[in-house]
Design brief:
The protein is mainly alpha-helical and 83 residues long. It has 2 helices and no strands. The longest helix is centred in the middle third of the chain and has 34 residues, at 37-70.
Length: 83
């Protein structure tokens, strides 16, 4: 359980850092009056939607795949098997 929360925090931090960097690059480009700042703004808005969805999908798949590994094996009488 501890590892799942740790991985989730790392992914959330990485996503937040990535999005902050995208918006900082857009802001700097806008103030520098570079021609491609509109493309950066579009990419930042797109990333604001896509990055959290991808992180959510990753954690969902990890949870579903991990559930099979963590299920405990039981005997016919309902007692837990030991390895």
């Amino acid at each position: 359980m501890k590892m799942k929360n740790h991985m989730r925090r790392i992914l959330a931090g990485a996503g937040a850092l990535f999005l902050s960097g995208m918006y900082a690059a857009t802001l700097i480009s806008a103030f520098a009056e570079e021609a491609h700042y509109e493309n950066l703004l579009t990419a930042s808005i797109y990333a604001t939607i896509v990055v959290p969805v991808l992180l959510w999908a990753y954690t969902l798949v990890r949870r579903l795949v991990g559930k099979d590994k963590t299920e405990k094996k039981e005997n016919d009488d309902g007692t837990e098997l030991t390895d």
